[in-house]
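User: I'm curious whether this sequence folds into something compact or stays loose and floppy. Could you predict its structure so I can see for myself?
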Amino acid sequence: MDSIKSFFRKIKWETLVTALLAIVIGVLFIVFPENSGNIICYVAGGIFVFLGTFLMIRHLFSGSIFGSYMLIVSILLIVVGVLCLVKQDMTQNLITIIFGAFIVINGLVDLQMGVDCAKMNVKGSWTLFVMSILLVGLGISVMFGTFDFVMIYCGISLIVDGVCDIVTTLVFSSHVKKAEKTIKNYLNDIQ
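Assistant: Here's the prediction. I'll summarize afterward.
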């Protein structure tokens, strides 16, 4: 019972931290929309180049005869990283599509959770349902918007996504606590 409780507690705090991080990044995108795209390109490019170089060095010094796919992956990561650093316009357009798709998928998952909560007659499930529909709409507008406004849309979407995740986590957390209490009462009644 304690392992299940600690598992749910861990998921709860990881989700809350991720949601708060999404809100902070969303605020930064709204406050600094012009610089956000370039910063994302520099950070992503640096990470890809570093990761590709690390994997290449690891492969070359591993002494492994097999596993040449790791060399190919490392070269691809370095190429993608250099493209992020050099071709920022292309990278920014790709980022808008990826962000939009991520937000739409997350919104659809939250929508399913909202439907599930409504089926279980959970209080406040309509809030989750409405927020997830808003999130899907924002994600679609991010995918097909111009980059000038996409960073602001991304910021709004990340804030809505973060708030939606916090609401979802708190709703499910309360149900886990109720279930735990019910199980304890049931076990006490049996004994």
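Summary: The first helix runs from residue 2 to 31. Helices lie at 2-31, 33-60, 69-86, 88-119, 125-144, 147-190.
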